[in-house]
Amino acid sequence: MAALASSANDTSYSIFVTAPDGLRLHVRCYGRASAAGIPVVCLPGLARTAADFDALATELSRDGPHPRRVIALDYRGRGLSQYDRDPANYSLPVELADVLAVVTALEAFPAVFIGTSRGGILTMLLAAVRPSAIAGAVLNDIGPVIEPQGLMRIKSYVGKLPQPRTFAEGAEILRRLFHSQFPRLGPDDWLAAAHRMFKEENGLLVTTYDPKLATAMGAINLEQPMPALWKEFDALTHVPVMVIRGANSDILSASTVAQMKARHPALETIEVPDQGHAPLLAEADTISLIARFAAAC
What we know:
Elements (H helix, E strand, L loop, with lengths): L1 E3 L7 E7 L5 E7 L6 E7 L10 H8 L6 E6 L18 H14 L5 E6 L1 H12 L4 E7 L7 H10 L9 H12 L8 H11 E4 L2 E4 L22 H5 L6 E6 L7 H10 L4 E5 L11 H13 L1
Parallel strand pairs: 4-5, 4-6, 6-7, 7-10, 10-11
Antiparallel strand pairs: 1-2, 2-3, 3-5, 8-9
Helix pairs in contact: 2-3, 5-6
């Protein structure tokens, strides 16, 4: 396990953890490992990185009377983690083993898990195989039933984005793709999104994930919907759970949220207006609600 120091004005730092098969996995850490509050583990979406949680993780690590350690993971093939030579390993079983390796190496369990999209699926899978690792769960725009139309939309662009010449051009690409789901984002928001989605490499802008990640979506089609994960969701009934849904989401339906509530009566629910898949978790109100939930865990 290796660490990279942060700048003098930055309270976060990077650590690299070795996966079970030897790949280097990047983890962004916030706060002190010795902080008294229960730790938080942030798991991003399919083609997303730890950077998505920067605002939330920073605030949670400084949370008044409940300062806590927060770690955010880059899955293999994303962000600063090593890319896998075999794209077949961009799979839920392999990534679940990676999550277990990270929380074990960093002694970050039991923890409150905040999972966006794929990260929420991994959280439910973890609850089924290692329930003692989870003290609470925030499922961001994901549930046991995943709407196939939303999956097809994601399949249409993962690994297939046009290559921008500038970050401004990248911002426009993202705006065209996602404006219908996030109608209130402004130019600065789209530019910030471009800096999270693209990076400079050999004088070119490329995605912050391995384009071969598209193979993980290869088997998805409208005729064969993904199996429901009710058994895995039910494994969370022993801990507090919060579900966040974007009002414009095409991945998590209001009907599925209602079914989740029926199976977990203490479930907390939030619907974020004017956002789709997946809510950004960057607004003060949303961060405050998540901080209160984590403190209650």
